[in-house]
Design brief:
Layout (H helix, E strand, L loop, with lengths): L2 E2 L5 H6 L5 E6 L4 H17 L4 E6 L4 H6 L7 E6 L2 E7 L4 H16 L8 H10 L1
Parallel strand pairs: 1-3, 2-3
Antiparallel strand pairs: 2-4, 4-5
Helix pairs in contact: 2-4
Length: about 130
């Protein structure tokens, strides 16, 4: 399931997120948005908790659509620490999107986790 985010919750759920967030700007009338939805769910399951997936209805969140200068739907933005790291728009179909998502997934899921202290790492091991 994809978390639905609005202008009201965007800062908390996306910009202040401790993990990178893939934001899917979509609209109910967008056919390609419906076609790529299963790919995004598959991406989410492959990434686990290392990348969060959220959806934004571009029609209902006009300020966000303007802020991120959407030219077409769907538009996917990977936002990390409040900054855009990847922008995916105008892809030609499923295979094009699948390759782009795979590249993003590999770049984030192969990174070693950094811990601030050995105590934190020790606690992490016990709770895993």
């Amino acid at each position: 399931m994809v978390l639905s985010v609005s202008e009201r919750t965007f800062t908390q759920e996306v910009l202040e997120s401790p993990v990178p967030v893939l934001v899917n700007f979509e609209a109910p009338w967008c056919g390609l948005c419906r076609i790529i939805h299963p790919l995004l769910l598959q991406f989410q399951s492959q990434c686990g908790e290392q990348i969060k997936l959220v959806g934004v209805n571009a029609d209902e969140n006009f300020k966000l659509s303007n802020t991120y200068r959407l030219k077409s739907l769907p538009t996917l933005l990977l936002i990390e620490n409040g900054s855009i790291r990847h922008r995916l728009e105008g892809f030609r179909g499923r295979d094009d999107l699948r390759l782009a998502l795979e590249e993003i997934r590999l770049s984030y899921t192969n990174r070693p986790k950094a811990y601030s202290s050995s105590k934190t790492a020790d606690l992490e091991c016990r709770t895993a």
